[in-house]
Structure formats: structure tokens, C-alpha cells
Specification:
Chain B: This is Exosome complex component CSL4 C-terminal domain-containing protein. The complex is a heterotrimer of chains A (about 375), B (about 290) and C (about 230). Chain A is of the alpha+beta class and about 375 residues long. Chain A has 8 helices and 19 strands. In chain A, the strands form 6 sheets. A 5-stranded mixed sheet of chain A has the order 3-4-5-11-7. In chain A, strands 10-9-12-15 form a 4-stranded mixed sheet, with no helix packed on it. In chain A, strands 17-16-18-19 form a 4-stranded antiparallel sheet, with helices on both faces. In chain A, helix 1 crosses helix 2. Chain A starts with a strand and ends with a helix. Chain B has 4 helices and 17 strands. In chain B, strand 3 and strand 4 form a beta hairpin. With about 230 residues, chain C is an alpha+beta fold. Chain C has a single domain, classed as Ribosomal Protein S5, domain 2 (2-Layer Sandwich). Chain C has a 5-stranded mixed sheet, with helices on one face. About 5% of the residues of chain C have low confidence. The chains are: A alpha+beta (about 375), B mainly beta (about 290), C alpha+beta (about 230). The interface between A and B is large, with 53 and 45 residues. Strand 5 of chain A pairs antiparallel with strand 1 of chain C.
């Protein structure tokens, strides 16, 4: 209602259907919803989307046993997470990398030295996964900024939260022997402690598994980091590592390789293969596992309120904390965000605060930490 | 579902490829032959079928939805044609009179027709075509023209996938950013090629004093403009006009988008209620 | 690939993918049971940020797979004026990287030619319709010959048709197809018109047999599609 020169002008409002208004002015649409105490997705302010998960359906270890020997699927763990209308498919695949350190050295001094330096660097004890996030949005070509930043953040957060100790990825290599009749058998040293003869076959090499994660997000309706993180954690929790072995003939094979006519280098190649049947569970540090949730803060615009009673505006809070940001309107209009990875006991492994819109108050942070605990305890019971 | 006594049943709900009706149908009524000529409208198409060795033209559905039949009032030329044909037939010794009724058969997608009863002709997924009213956002202005991107066709469903969020051209949001945060938004949304673009030439801004139009006093980047499609234009742009009272800026924020919402106080001024500041725009029907 | 990909986290360069020791496959007696009764479930409209989408899950005795099709557009095209929509179809591997890029592109080209004939393209000037098919999972339960990509084509066609109908894009008819001995036929109009023919293997003299078998499965898929589309 506008006043010009004491003369009152009645402004004829132009009305639009809600979905058109949401498109042409998401900000106004969001503010109108919030003033009614509801969000555009019809959730309450601190309400999370429900999460459904589906474990292991894609994993090779979900196959019936008789098919395992011939299955060529390399998926070691998987998760399908459905959150609201968005769903995330995570599949964990693996690789094997040769480490430069020998498995057992007689040189105790060197080992001690290594230990000392490792203690200084806490992070080097832990490994991470290499995620590739793909958000399906009907486009082809190079990954978008979002896909790159989410991938990098997932990688860093897994590393720094210390979920996967490096020791969990060490390959305890077995040896395949061929007896005189041509029958091949695989021995794993750690399975048969008493067998002394196998000790001699122990290789002077060390291998480690490398874990890759392919995370595909379908039906993106809002920010995806927390969905990707939760899906990745669920997938890692059911990841199984295949037992690996090398052939006894290869235990100390060396080859001379000439690279580009320059100096001859010696490369030792081992044909390391994985057992199609036997596998061990990936050992995660359970107490360090946390789940992610996101929050946003938005200032209420006093002009956009729909209130018959003008006085009611006075005791309304000026900014609102919204949990689990979703929908286009919230994503484009909320500039102050809080992203938390933590467990149900309140142990945090990552907190990201981004200001830019509403002021992030200590109360808002406290509140979101509390909500994050509740969300984590809910998610951790899903397995 | 059988208006004006068409002598056969129309299917109620159809799926693509389903036959709806033949091109012509005759009904004998008292002294006259009622001839129904069916034309294909939205969501339908003529297809020829071989039936008993003859080729029959028939209307089939191309969408899932409910069949709607509307009678069109024939314009004068069509009437003249019909009269001519009637005369011709009479001269051949035809005694019976014949009335031709033109019907348009269309298919309306269910979810829209049921939820929005107040709007008449809304079909999902219609591209802007001539004479459509569209809602656009101004992306760039120059002395001669304003470039806009088309956000929605009025009275029609909003396509889902050309939004900001779903295609990641928004500002970085919680926990990692989205697509084009390295660009400014205006550039990103036009450079990603997501939306249909249009342009309003300065002579199409208003109907009177067309030579003295200043684009800068009519539109600012970020304004939401209600416009009408003049032509499909070239490969890139639709040509739009706001030369009508009900066309022009419908939403604008003061101070180039940083201030509050403005309301039109006359046909070329908008004001911010809280501060009283005014800015010039070509407003759509303020009163 | 000699250019290093800096946009993705690829992990250590010297890592080798896990290779499973190839055990000699269990020699199965080639049981040619013709009652390959596959059960299909169709769903539509599950991908929120596309205009239309569909999910197909097929499980038969020797194969289980599911694929998702999503339709984006009509979208604006740049460049010169086009009076008809141009259709592009992309096939994407799911979590198992099962098929090579050339194989996928070949199938995508075939599907594009099928749908050029099916979509009412003149209704969409100046625009492009982008269709994505995501092969979510694909699991062989036996080493039968039907484990190749050709057997997926009819389901791709069904999925895309369903997604197009869900998106409200005008199509002339519900297209689908069938697979038999390496031959794929795609039909419209109750099997009276063939919109595409794909041949990958097998001898050429059994085409007419295949045609009839493919037509039967087309009619089966079509009735499934109709019931999926017509339910509220």
C-alpha cells in the first residue's frame, strides 16, 4: 500500500500461480512461505527429509556364492540413499598400489624412525577414498564446479576424520602354489599361523588397497554434499576387500626395463590377483564415523510478510534456522550456511560455516549442533 | 464426453498413439446432414491409417491426458468456402441441407487441468509461440534493445528443468557450490544456454512515442517483465513487445536489485514503500 | 590418455585396478529353456530435476538389470534457426563400467534415429530435447549370449518412450521393440510400422522369425506402458 501526497492509491496486485512466482521471484516466494511458518517443500523449519537406504545391492558380495567365481563386477561395496526426492548411488571399487616400504624389515632402527615421524603427522596414518561425484542434470562434458568441490571435500573429510586407518588397507598377500598335478591352491599366511614353510614365501613387497568411490546423484533438488557424505559412509561400512595373492613363481621376480633409451631401471613386477571368493570386511574406526547435515540461516524480510495483524511482527525472530536445505528457492536465497559432520554423541569431525546472508549467531550454531546430534543418532540406526 | 450429439464415443483418457476420431463424421438429423470436421489441436496429430485397403486420416493422441473437444467459430473465409461447396453439392442435385461444424480435438495433460481450474488453456511444455504472453527476466540492456531470458509462458506449466537450482547456476550454497559460481549470475544463466532468450527492441517498448523510448528508463537488468511474443525471431532470440497497457515490468527491486521490492505508482514510475524512493520503469497496468 | 585429468580425484597413478583371478568358468550345459519369462516393472516420474523420467527393472532367469531414462527439454538451442527439435540421446554406464564408449555411442545413434521418427518434432522449433539413459545395473546370471548390449535396446526404447510421455513431449505412438538372436526391431502402430532395425550377430536368414518374436514382445511392452501411463 503506497501513499502519494495524502491521496491513497490502491495498488492492484498482479497475481501469479505459486509455481510461476517461485520461478520469477524465488526470494519472495520463500519469504512468503516462511512467514506462514512453513517452507516451500512443506517441511517445518527444523524438519529433515526422511532417508531410505538400500545396502549392498550392487556389490559383488551380494551375488549368490556360486556366481562369485565368474562374476567380473569389481564393486566392493555400495549404497543407494534416497532422501526426499533425491537419490544417490554410491559404488566403491578398488585398486592395488605398491608401497615403497618393505613389509618386514630387520632394521628396527629404521622402523622406529618411521614411527616417530608418523606420529608427528597424524593424518599420514589415515587413508582416504577417491570419490568422483556426478550430479545428473541433463548435461554432458566436464565436471561442474559443484562436482569438483564436493569430490574434493569428501576426500578431505574422510582423510581428516580418520575413519580409514592405513593399516586397514594393507594387503595381506597370499601365495598361490601349483602342485605337481597342476592343482592351484592359495595360502594366506595370516590364516595359517603355524605353517612355517609359508613364512619363506613372504614377499619383500608391500601393497595397499586404494578405494575409489563413484557417487552419482539423481534428481538433485538442493545441495548434495551431506547426501553424498552419508551415502559414502554407508557404502564404506559394507565394503569388503577381496583377498589378494600372487603366484609363488613370482615372489621374487625382477625384470630389467629400459625406459626411453635412458638408464636401465629395474622394475619388479608382480602379477597380483584377487581371490574371487574370499574377502574381509573393511575395518573402519567406528567411533569416528559421523554423519553430515546442513543448515541455513535466513533473515525474514519484513516487507514480504503476510500478516493481517501488523503488531505480530514485533515479537517474531528476525532470522530463522532451517535444517536440511532443499529446493531451488532455499538454495538460491540462503547465503549463510552451516554444514556439520558429527556423530550422535556430539563428536565433530567437520564444521563449515559460510556467512554471507543472515548473521550466524552462537545460538544458531548451538541449535544446529544439537540437531546434528539427533540427525546422526537417527542415521546411525539405519544399518 | 460427447458434446453436441457426435454419434460415437470419444475416449476419455488417451495415451500417445491412441486413435481418437476420424477426420470427418456425418450425422443425419431431421432434414439436415450434420458434418463434423475434426481438426487436430494441442496434443493430437493427423496420421494416416490403412483400413480395408483405403487410407484413412484420423486424429491420434500424442500426449497422455484427457480429450477435450471445442467447437470453433468459423471465420468468414471458411464460411464462404463451405457455402461454395454447399452450392456445388446442391447444383449436383443434392436435396439435403448440410451444416459443417468445425471441432478442435486436443489433449490436456491431467495434472494441470485439474489443479488450475481458473486458467483455460494451459498445456505443459509449450514453447513460446507467437502472441503468447511470457514472463522474462532482463539480462542485459543497451541503447537499442533489452535482452531477456524467458522464464515462463503465462497460463502454462513451468518447465521443471530450466531453473537455477536444478542446473547449478546459483550462488554457492551449503556444503559445496553449484555450477557457475565463478561467473556472475546473469552471465552464467545466459551463457550456459539453459533458457530461451528474447529481445525487446526500443521501438517495441511502448505503443506511443516510440521514437523517444529510452531503454534505461524502461528496464533494468534483473527486472521481471511481462511481454508478448512478436515472432520466433532468429536462432537465438525471440522478438518480444511490451507495447500494451498490461505488459511491462511486473517485479523490480530498487537500486539495481539491491533494494526492496518496488510497486508501480503510475505507468512509468515505481516506488519503494519503505523509503519512498522512485525509479523509472515501463510498468504493466498499475491501476 | 596423456593429458592428466585435473578435474577429478584419480588417486595414485601407479595403482592398478583389482583383477580377479580368472577361474575357469563353470561349464554349464547350455540349457536352452525357451520359457525365458522375464518380469518387468515400469515406473515413471522419479527424477525430479528432469521434465520426465522412467525406471525399468527387468529380471529374468539369466539376467537382471535396470535402467533409468530422463528427458530434459525442450531446451534452447544456439545458432541458426531450426524449425524442428533436434534430439540427442546419451547412454551412460552405471556403477559397473560394463560397456565401452564406442558401444554406447553406437546404440545411442541407433536410438536417436528411432526417436527422430517417433517424436512430433515439428511442434518444438528452435529447441533440443536431451535424453539420458543410465544403465543402473546389469547383472548376468549366466554366460548366455544374450548378455550383450543388443538385448538392452528394446528396454532402452521402452524407457525413453515412457520418459517422453511422462515429460509431456508429443510422440506419434508408443514405440518399443523386441530382441531375438542379435536382431532388434523397433515398432510403432501395433507392429505395422518398423522404426528401426539393429543387427549385431546371428545369421541373416532368420530375420523374419525374429520379426514375429520381436513384435510379440513389442505388444507386451506396449500394453505394460499403457497401463503404467494410464494409472493416476
Amino acid at each position: 500500500m503506497t501513499e502519494v501526497d495524502t491521496e491513497t492509491l490502491e495498488v492492484h496486485p498482479i497475481t501469479f500461480p505459486p509455481q510461476v512466482l517461485a520461478r520469477i521471484s524465488p526470494e519472495l516466494s520463500l519469504q512468503r512461505h516462511l512467514s506462514l511458518g512453513i517452507r516451500p517443500c512443506l517441511r517445518k523449519f527444523e524438519e529433515f527429509r526422511d532417508v531410505h537406504i538400500n545396502q549392498e545391492t550392487l556389490s559383488r558380495y551380494n551375488l549368490p556364492d556360486e556366481l562369485l567365481p565368474t562374476a567380473n563386477s569389481g564393486i566392493l561395496g555400495s549404497n543407494v540413499l534416497k532422501c526426499g526426492k533425491t537419490f544417490v548411488i554410491t559404488s566403491i571399487t578398488g585398486g592395488i598400489v605398491e608401497e615403497t616400504l618393505p613389509v618386514e624389515t630387520d632394521n628396527l632402527g629404521e622402523e622406529e624412525l618411521l614411527d616417530m615421524s608418523e606420529k608427528r603427522d597424524e593424518i599420514s596414518k589415515y587413508a582416504s577414498v577417491f570419490p568422483i561425484v556426478e550430479v545428473e542434470r541433463g548435461r554432458v562434458g566436464a565436471p561442474t564446479d559443484e562436482e569438483m568441490t564436493v569430490s574434493q571435500k569428501l576426500h578431505d573429510c574422510v582423510l581428516h576424520s580418520g575413519i580409514i586407518p592405513k593399516s586397514a588397507l594393507n594387503v595381506k598377500c597370499g601365495v598361490r602354489t601349483t602342485d605337481t598335478e597342476g592343482n592351484k591352491t592359495v595360502f594366506y599366511p595370516d590364516e595359517q599361523e603355524d605353517d612355517v614353510t609359508l613364512k619363506q614365501l613372504q614377499q619383500q613387497k608391500k601393497w595397499a588397497y586404494v578405494l575409489y568411490a563413484k557417487i552419482v546423484v539423481f534428481s538433485r533438488t538442493g545441495p548434495v554434499f551431506d547426501l553424498c557424505w552419508n551415502s559414502l559412509i554407508f557404502a564404506l561400512r559394507n565394503t569388503r576387500l577381496p583377498r589378494a595373492f600372487i603366484d609363488e613363481r613370482a615372489t621374487d621376480l625382477t625384470m630389467t626395463v629400459r625406459t626411453r633409451g635412458r638408464s636401465a631401471t629395474i622394475k619388479e613386477t608382480y602379477d597380483i590377483l584377487c581371490d574371487p571368493k574370499k574377502s574381509v570386511q573393511l575395518k573402519l574406526v567406528e567411533p569416528k564415523i559421523g554423519y553430515a547435515s546442513s543448515y541455513g540461516l535466513i533473515d525474514l524480510d519484513p516487507e514480504a510478510q503476510i500478516n493481517d495483524d501488523e503488531d505480530e511482527d514485533m515479537d517474531q525472530p528476525s532470522s530463522i534456522l532451517l535444517a536440511d536445505i532443499d529446493t531451488e528457492a532455499e538454495e538460491t536465497c540462503i547465503h549463510s550456511t552451516i554444514s556439520i559432520i558429527g556423530d550422535s554423541k556430539g563428536n565433530l569431525s567437520n564444521v563449515t560455516l559460510v556467512g554471507g546472508g543472515a548473521k550466524i549467531t552462537p545460538e544458531a550454531i548451538k541449535r544446529s549442533l544439537l540437531l546434528s546430534k539427533q540427525r546422526s543418532s537417527d542415521l546411525s540406526t539405519r544399518l | 464426453m460427447n458434446p453436441e450429439g457426435i454419434p460415437f464415443e470419444f475416449p476419455d483418457r488417451v495415451f500417445p498413439g491412441q486413435l481418437i476420431c476420424p477426420e470427418y463424421e456425418v450425422k443425419q438429423q431431421d432434414e439436415v446432414d450434420l458434418v463434423f470436421k475434426f481438426n487436430s489441436g494441442q496434443g493430437t496429430r493427423f496420421q494416416s491409417f490403412k483400413y480395408d485397403g483405403t487410407t484413412v486420416n484420423a486424429i491420434t493422441a500424442t500426449l497422455v491426458g484427457n480429450v477435450k473437444i471445442t467447437e470453433t467459430t468459423c471465420d468468414s473465409t471458411a464460411n464462404a468456402d463451405q457455402k461454395a461447396s454447399e452450392e456445388k453439392l446442391q447444383s449436383q442435385g443434392e436435396v439435403r441441407k448440410r451444416i459443417v461444424k468445425d471441432m478442435v480435438v486436443s489433449v490436456a495433460q491431467n495434472d494441470i487441468s485439474e489443479t488450475k481450474c481458473n486458467v483455460n488453456d494451459d498445456f505443459a511444455n509449450n514453447l513460446p509461440k507467437e502472441d503468447d504472453i511470457v514472463l522474462t527476466r532482463v539480462t542485459r540492456i543497451s541503447l537499442q534493445r533489452a535482452n531477456v531470458e524467458i522464464l515462463a509462458v503465462e497460463n502454462q506449466a513451468v518447465p521443471v528443468d530450466s531453473g537455477i537450482g536444478s542446473n547449478g547456476s546459483g550462488i554457492v550454497a551449503a556444503g559445496g557450490g553449484s555450477g557457475a559460481a565463478t561467473f556472475s549470475i546473469a552471465q552464467a544463466s545466459s551463457d550456459l544456454g539453459e533458457t530461451f532468450r528474447g529481445l525487446i527492441r526500443s521501438q517495441d517498448v511502448r505503443a506511443t512515442e516510440r521514437d523517444t523510448v529510452k531503454i534505461i528508463d524502461s528496464f533494468k537488468p534483473g527486472d521481471i517483465v511481462r511481454a508478448q511474443v512478436l515472432s520466433l525471431g532468429d536462432g537465438t532470440n525471440y522478438y518480444l513487445t511490451t507495447a500494451r497497457n498490461d505488459l511491462g515490468v511486473v517485479f523490480a527491486r530498487a537500486v539495481n536489485g539491491t533494494g526492496g521490492l518496488m510497486y508501480a505508482i503510475d505507468w512509468q514510475t515505481m516506488a519503494v514503500p519503505s523509503t519512498g524512493a522512485t525509479e523509472k520503469r515501463k510498468c504493466a497496468k498499475p491501476f | 590418455m596423456n593429458v592428466q585429468d585435473r578435474r577429478r580425484l584419480l588417486g595414485p597413478a601407479n595403482a592398478r585396478p583389482i583383477a580377479f583371478s580368472a577361474e575357469k568358468p563353470v561349464v554349464e550345459e547350455p540349457e536352452k529353456d525357451q520359457d525365458k519369462q522375464e518380469s518387468i516393472s515400469l515406473r515413471k516420474g522419479l527424477i525430479e530435476n528432469s521434465n520426465g523420467s522412467s525406471l525399468i527393472e527387468v529380471s529374468s532367469k539369466d539376467r537382471q538389470f535396470s535402467l533409468m531414462a530422463s528427458v530434459y527439454g525442450p531446451r534452447a538451442l544456439r545458432g541458426s534457426f531450426t524449425s524442428m527439435a533436434s534430439i540427442s540421446i546419451q547412454l551412460q554406464n552405471g556403477s559397473q563400467e560394463k560397456y565401452g564408449p564406442t558401444q554406447l555411442r553406437e546404440v545411442a545413434t541407433f536410438l536417436t534415429s528411432v526417436f527422430n521418427a517417433v517424436v512430433n518434432r515439428s511442434r518444438y522449433p528452435k529447441s533440443g530435447i536431451d535424453i539420458f539413459v543410465y544403465l543402473t545395473y546389469d547383472r548376468d546370471l549366466s554366460q548366455s549370449s544374450s548378455s550383450n548390449i543388443s538385448a538392452l535396446i528394446p528396454h532402452c526404447i521402452t524407457g525413453i518412450t515412457l520418459a517422453l510421455a511422462d515429460a509431456g513431449i508429443e510422440i506419434l505412438d508408443l514405440a518399443s521393440g523386441g530382441y531375438h538372436n542379435g536382431n532388434v526391431f523397433s515398432f510403432i502402430k501395433n507392429g505395422d510400422e518398423i522404426t528401426g532395425f539393429w543387427k549385431d550377430e546371428g545369421v541373416s536368414n532368420d530375420i523374419s522369425d525374429s520379426l514375429e518374436i520381436c513384435r510379440q514382445s513389442y505388444i507386451r511392452y506396449k500394453s505394460l506402458m499403457v497401463s503404467t501411463l494410464m494409472q493416476k
